Amino acid sequence: VLDYYRYNPLIFSHLDACHDRFIGKGFKEITDLSTPTKSKFINSVRENFSLKTTEKQDNNFKDQLNVISAGSREKEIELVAKQIKLLLQNKNTEPNKICVVFNLIEKYSPIIRDRFSLFGIPFNLTDRFSLSTSEPVKGIIHFLEVAEDDFYYKNILRAFSNYFIQIAEVDLSNLLKVSVELKIVSGYANWISRITDKINELSSNYDENERREELIKNCRQAEKEIQKIKSMLVPFEKKLTPEQFLNEILSLIFELNFPATILNAKNDVVEKDLKALNTFINSLREFIEILKLESGKEIKYELRFYLNQIRTLTAFSRYNIAEKSGYGVQITTLNEIRGLNFDYLFICGLNDGDFPTRFSPEIFFSGSFAKEEVRYQIEQRYLFYQALCSWRKELFLTYPLFEEKKELVQSSFLQDFLKIFSTQSKNEQSFSSTIFSKRELLEHIGFLQYEERKSINISEELNINLQKINHSIEIDKKRKEDPFGNFGYSGFIGENIPNILKDQLNEITDREFSATQLETYAKCPYKFFLENILRIQTVEEPLEELEAFEFGSLLHSILFIFYSSLKRTGIVLKNCSENDFKMAEKLLFDLAHKKFDDLNLTSESAFFEREKLLGINDKKKNSILYKFLLEERNRDDGYIPSFFELGFGKVKNESAKRIPVKKEIKISDVKLRGKIDRVDVNDSDKTLKVVDYKLSGTKPTIEDLKTGLSLQLPLYLYASKELISAYFKDDYKPAGAQIFSLKYSEKDFGIRLVNLYKKGKNDSLENKIENAEEMIKICKSMVSTYVKAISEGKFNLSLLDNRESKICRYCDFKKICRIQEIN
Ligand code: SF4
Hints:
Layout: H1 9-12, H2 16-24, H3 36-48, E1 65-70, H4 73-90, E2 98-102, H5 109-118, E3 123-125, E4 129-130, H6 135-148, H7 153-160, H8 172-182, H9 188-203, H10 210-233, H11 242-255, H12 258-263, H13 267-295, H14 303-316, E5 318-319, E6 329-333, E7 342-347, H15 373-388, E8 391-400, E9 402-403, E10 406-407, H16 412-420, E11 424-426, H17 438-447, H18 450-455, H19 466-481, H20 499-510, E12 512-514, H21 515-523, H22 525-533, H23 548-569, H24 578-599, H25 604-614, H26 624-633, E13 640-648, E14 666-667, E15 670-682, E16 687-694, H27 702-707, H28 712-728, E17 733-741, E18 750-754, H29 765-791, H30 803-806, H31 819-822
Parallel strand pairs: 1-8, 1-11, 2-6, 2-7, 3-6, 7-8, 12-15, 16-17
Antiparallel strand pairs: 4-5, 9-10, 13-15, 14-15, 15-16, 17-18
Helix pairs in contact: 4-5, 6-7, 6-14, 8-10, 9-10, 11-13, 20-29, 21-22, 23-24, 24-26, 28-29
The structure holds iron/sulfur cluster.
């Protein structure tokens, strides 16, 4: 049967030639009178669709024609699902009498799977899946890409995040940890050499250190993991003939245990993955045959060539999974329902661009298939017309208004349709008085008052624990009313906990604290809790660049070795001779060159940092290190740099040196640990100054020192006074803390005093000592307060007024804490 109507060229003119040929061959035209009411509707479409503009709309079908608009594609499908639920429930319809169609179904398939499952609607989705989105196929491609891009860490991460690429010997999180720690971005040789160097470096250090042991273990494991991956990819490193490549891929699929992974998966994905893998292997076989025919069997190609072909092949290949006939709501494309009839039909995605789609000439593929835009529009209109012929009881035309923030245009087909027929309109509001899913019920319960919640009756079948919900709602309410209140869910976990947990909290306060930890507690107790008690770590990506903190530690290490070596030569920089200065300069620059070269960095930013450190355009005088030497030589305060990287407690960094004094640094019962960059001593008046190297040049504010937010320098003053007095067996007094800014720019470079008072105050030695003692006093009092609060389990969110700028802005935990609700 050829469905044709001569007088509406905007629907049928592409069939003119075909119709005339049939008539020429003796075929007869007949009018379909089988379904009289329906024929009236179809006839009206045939005669008027896209032609009629001014006359009155046809009211005869209003009860059967519906238009549903929604805010987004997701909402559109939600409203379709709700409408289907109403049909199933109110009209006792069988699901298989309902059909939902799309022109571009791929935009909707994931949304349908999600929303229809959520609303508990059985459905049968006939969508053809692209091979490029199939997990086993992506697994093969990503695994081969590890070899293609020479072990680029992102490819390793991508490959091993695929559940088909699971190799017993490879632990992805360990590989990532090591790549971040050792700054390995890519290159198999680079992975191995950096890991080996690190193991050697750590093994030659005999300090007892848990972290060192753990890192050695991680490095050894990472080395084996990388070697294992390499061994599986070796066959693809050389050029291969098409047949060899096919055989290697098949072996790899078996070596990676794909068949077992597929069969052990959940039932609903077994068929899909199996079909995808099968389609992939068949398509690959076809491609290999074509390649052999076109270029010969013996030509060998590199992996990159094959991967490019596979990527194209999978992007254009699709596969189907078998339909479950007669099961659920039928969801398919417009093309698939030609000639079929359903009681209820939904035509969705009625936007310009979706249906009609934009015309894209095919001349780029083949001149012989080129179509004119007009003809293309008519073909699409005909497709719409055919869909309009496929319903019996009700028709639903649906469209979304927005896609993300972009406004969508209603389909011109729908606009033409509305010119002919009166319809019923529905939108989100139309469905708002009914609850359609368990999730909506839970949301509804959430908005009820306590008394209302108590009186509702919920069927056991729904498995909803109202008591638990009441409890959660009450907690949430309390949290909102008093976000920093003294109760467990606001971070005060010390009360009403078993004794065993109380003991554990007390044990925490027995540990050694660093200034950084205590400063974190001061700014945000909750952040302290996450980092130091739950020990949550965020995973970073490895960077080849020299990050600021690494540049800082490089500088620290250079200056430490420099001063230790200089001390052995007997040279004192302050007011030194030209000759001594030259010797010191050579010592410092040779050392820095070697340290930088050892890092083996190649990025542009690393080059820039090197120039800043060692001299722009090889001019030493334009360097941080030269400026440092000058600053030290010209100092006139009577202090001599005497102790470097002075450690106390168990310091993380192995290079921290303790002076040979056994002295525990404590404030009340609180044990402390840390590493002081430098202590300068004035032997004549028996005073000392603490020096902290900083790349940023910023120094603590008076406010932070007074309120106990900045503890590091006061704590170091206290520790150095204790240690140095013990070392010299004499009373050495603290006379100030200094920031040595190593920022390249002239105006920011140099030594700055950290003080509790504004400049201009009498700066006699007595005042300096008094000021330093005052800083220590505040620090001691605050440290005791903080550690007491920790032992009591007080871990509330940051109470600071300016918390956003002080700590939250760069906090990794912003997404999991509730501060945004409070703000
Ligand atoms: S975002 Fe702010 S309040 Fe939240 S954990 Fe981090 S520092 Fe604390």
